[in-house]
Amino acid sequence: MYTVYGIPNCDTVKKVRDWLDAHKIKYDFHNYKTDGITAAKLKTWCGQVGWETILNKKSTTWRELDAKTQATINNEKKAIELLVQNTSAIKRPVIEKAGKVITVGFNAAAYEELF
Fold it and tell me: Sorted alphabetically, which Pfam families does this protein's record hold (predicted)?
C-alpha cells in the first residue's frame, strides 16, 4: 500500500490524488497539517533522497523566511528542524511504500512508469 504525504489543498497533491484515483491505485493519505510529521520520518526520507529534495525552496513558506534564516538552513539537521515546524515547506507530495520513498513531486510520465 502506498502512502501519499501532503496537504489536501495543495494543487500538486490534488493532481496526484486524482491521477492515482483515475488509475485505481490504492493509497493512504497523510495530511501534514492535521497529522504532523516526525523528525525521524524526515530523517529517513532525507537519507533516501537528500534533504535538498525534501525541502521545497519554491514554497510560499520558504519564500516568507528572511534571507538570514534561509541562509542557516544549510544541512540536513537544520532542514529537518525547519520542516517539523513548517510542514508547508516540505516538497509535495512524498509517496512512500513500505518505508521507501517512491517519488517526490508529480510528473505524469514518471508516474506511468512507477505505477
Answer: ArsC
* Class of 2-114 in CATH: alpha beta
Domain-wise residue ranges, the chain: 2-114
46 tagged catalytic: no
In the numeric block, which cell numbers belong to residue 105?
Answer: 513531486
Of 9, 21, 27, whose CA–CA distance to 102 is shortest? Answer: 27
**Structure confidence by residue, pLDDT tens digits, 35-83:** 999 999 999 999 999 999 999 999 999 999 999 999 999 999 999 999 9
The C-alpha angle 32, 34, 36, rounded to 5 degrees, equals 45
